[in-house]
Amino acid sequence: PGKACGHAPAVAAPPQHPLSPAVAGQCAGPAHGATLSLRLTLGRWEGGEEQGGAGQDCKGSGLWGISQCWRGVVQQQVQRFLEAAGQAPDLAERYCRLYQRLRGATEELFGQQAAFVLALGQGFAGALLQLSFLTALHVSEQFARYLDVQIQELRRAAGSTGPLERLQQFLEPFVVFSGLELAHTFEHFYRHYLGDRLLTQGPSWLEGGIVEQIGLCFPSRFPQDMLSNLAESEELQRQFCLFQLQEQDKRLLELD
User: Fold this and answer.
1) In this protein, which residues make up the domain named Cullin family profile (predicted)?
2) What is the pTM of this model?
3) Which of 20, 78, 161, 203 is deepest in the core (most CB within 10 A)?
4) What tens digit of pLDDT does each residue of 42-88 get?
5) Which whole-number Å values give the CA distances from 176 to 51, 119, 152, 212, 213, in the listed order?
6) Is 1-130 CATH 1.10.1660?
């Protein structure tokens, strides 16, 4: 048996959490440049007993190997979720909860190391890539509708504390769409909801903030162009009103 590795301790979350991460590791070989062999598991806890979850045997050298192992664990967990809840009416809400749980597990196990935050996003992206075309359409529409509800709630809560923090929090799970084929269908549905909001409620700083946060999720840049065209239209309208006032002043001066 190998010597217990000090930098990869066993971690087990208390059973009251919906998801309980655990990492067990052993080092084999010399202390310098040792190869790390890991068994990473992410189980679901209900009633104090583990009900099963994603697991992966990891044999990697150094940080990169462990992060890739974690990526695989996350991808398995997300794929299982999408298979079970892909047609659920509250899919987007449950997806966001899963993201927050897995992000919390990542921070608990590995801290704020960029390699593991990246592995988290890659795991989600890998699972979303496995969706069939029809399922991807359904998922994209659900995500766009969920964001529309969240944005309207945030607009109604204007003046309350922490709107930027809330905006970043509910947008973060969707950043992983960047670069995926899913981003095209997501953008298609998102721009329709955006158009409805602009027609019924007018522009808002929130819309620009969203584009800044998840602009890479809009490969055709339709939302950006819509907001840019609206701003240009408002500027032209302002200039036209100013021109009309100047013309009235000229006529009044001529009458005098």
Assistant:
1) 138-240
2) 0.73
3) 78
4) 544 333 333 444 455 565 558 899 999 999 999 999 999 999 988 88
5) 28, 11, 23, 15, 12
6) no
